[in-house]
Amino acid sequence: MSSTTLSPYKLEFLEAAINGGVLKFGSFELKSKRISPYFFNAGDFYRADLLRAISTAYAKTIIEVNESSSPVEFDILFGPAYKGIPLATSTVDKLAELKPEKYGSVCYSFDRKEAKDHGEGGNIVGAPLKGKRVLIVDDVVTAGTAKREAIGKIRYEGGIVVGILVALDRMEKLPAPNGDDPKAPMPSAIGEIRKEYGIPVLSILTLNGGAVEGKEGADCG
To answer: Contact at 8 Å (CB) between 128 and 108?
Structure first.
């Protein structure tokens, strides 16, 4: 595996993911049924040092993006259940630690897989979404189904989705639109979400074949 020049926090995140067994190399069948030479499972960031590495990488990516010419301003980080929940909560905490003057009052929310019909009820836990700018934080984009579901839930609650941040852009391709033509161009899963919703989809790292790229503040897709 080769890598372009990465900023220190991206390199630390990559090393933590590999050494912690979160990023594995081999032959893996993804949800999209595509065979991939690597597999990334953010659910394996359950150890304190690994969670610190990924939350730091998310937070510093957000800070870099918002110091660029194309900032993504938000009020709430939203972590889709289940893997996105610890990612959103730990990233909010890290943002407040790194830049308390800007992010000290940023909130988090996450959804329930099944609506609760007692107590506080509803589909959402955490900060109310109505009228708020929401940045979704998750691990990867495969077919984009889970991200579309999250966007639908946020909009149903009156939130305004301003972007999506994932840990890894696997350059996932969707089936060709006309199916049977193997020469037809295959659309990017991330690119389709950007086009459909008109929002930026950002990543900490991009895995492009055997190369690891760190696109500083860039939309990946």
So the answer is: no
Distance CA(138)–CA(142), nearest Å, equals 11
Catalytically annotated residue among 102, 116, 130, 195: 116
Q: Using one digit for the tens of pLDDT, what is the confidence trace for 38-64?
A: 889 888 999 999 999 999 999 999 999
Extract the tokens encoding 135: 């940045």
Q: Is 132 a catalytic residue?
A: no
Told to judge if 118 belongs to the known catalytic residues of this protein, a careful annotator would answer yes
What is the pLDDT of the chain when averaged over all its residues?
85
> Which residue is catalytic, options 33, 113, 118, 183?
118
What is the extent of the structural domain holding 99? 2-213
Please indicate, yes or no, whether the overall pTM of this predicted structure exceeds 0.70: yes
Residue type at 210? G
| Tally of domains in the chain | 1
